[in-house]
Known about the structure:
The structure is a single chain. The protein folds into two domains: 5-212, HUPs (Rossmann fold); 246-321, 2-Layer Sandwich (Uridine Diphospho-n-acetylenolpyruvylglucosamine Reductase, domain 3), CATH 3.30.465. The chain is built from twelve helices and ten strands. The protein has helices at residues 5-18, 35-48, 68-81, 101-120, 131-144, 148-151, 170-180, 196-212, 216-245, 253-257, 261-274, 284-295; strands at 26-30, 54-61, 86-91, 124-126, 157-158, 161-162, 251-252, 301-304, 308-313, 316-321. Strands 3-2-1-4-6-5 form a six-stranded mixed beta sheet, sandwiched between helices. Strand 8 (301-304) and strand 9 (308-313) form a beta hairpin. The longest helix has 30 residues, at 216-245. The protein starts with a helix and ends in a 5-residue tail after the last strand.
Amino acid sequence: MGLHPAVAAVRRGVRRVLGPLEQGSTVLVACSGGADSLALLSATVFEARRPGHRVVGVTVDHGLQDGSAEHAARVVAQMAGLGADETATARVQVDPGGLGVEAAARRARYEVLEQVREHFGAAVVLLGHTRDDQAETVLLGLARGSGGRSIAGMRRRFDHYARPLLDVARDDTVAACLAEGIEAWDDPHNHDPGFARVRVRHRVLPVLEAELGPGVAATLARTADQVRADVEALDAIAQASYDALAGADGLPVAGLRELLPAVATRVLRLAALAAGARDSELFHVHVTALHQLALGGINGEVQLPGHTTAYREDAHLRFRATPVAG
Length: 326
């Protein structure tokens, strides 16, 4: 019997990411115990043998469910059984604050993954997001009116992270696990309609498939790739403009007025982040307000997340720390 097509699809995605790495690199695989991440880990162990890469499997315990510590221990044993050279588990404290549980858990997860990556000196961290995850992200972005950046979906590569399975369907990761005899965990949160992503997965996408025909998820994922290219081009132009305009006095209003709105708003976003605004909470409404402030459409100040305030002075847009109320 030949290699199962689903196993081949997962391995192909991993091979594309591992190919450029130097021989003997350390590869970190984030593993929840679900089909996506277990299929990813198994494929990574297989593809890492020839170039001699060291595979480290890591699972993050968010402490959001009863028995989460015991589940993390099972995942560690499973990762070792699949051939990971080393395994690690980390417990994080999820503080929803104003972000909500999903966003807070994601932020805590990436913070600890970065710490683990630095500890092991990993060249790359592999994440198990699939084509279906990408489609859901695009739909959520459309529903929230989040603009091109959100519709562009999840990035294939960023910093030390990569998503090898964005061309692989979720059904294929399940099939790959079945073909390899891997028992995957079904996270109860994946069936909780209290989460918007779950409603999109189980209610919205099936209706779209039924009414518009099969292949909607693949089409949405392809749209994300196309929009991503445009977004990255605009981001590069904006970075160059920001580098040219930014100075000790802030951003000159006259220079901002000469930029196209799509570039100017990106420049303002970069300036806000450099001043200390929180990326995860800096939304379109904040950037639009900054643009209006710069152009004179509004007066006064703009309060930004991260205790940062923007204001106009001497024909420049400037930022300062927001005073803490006493």
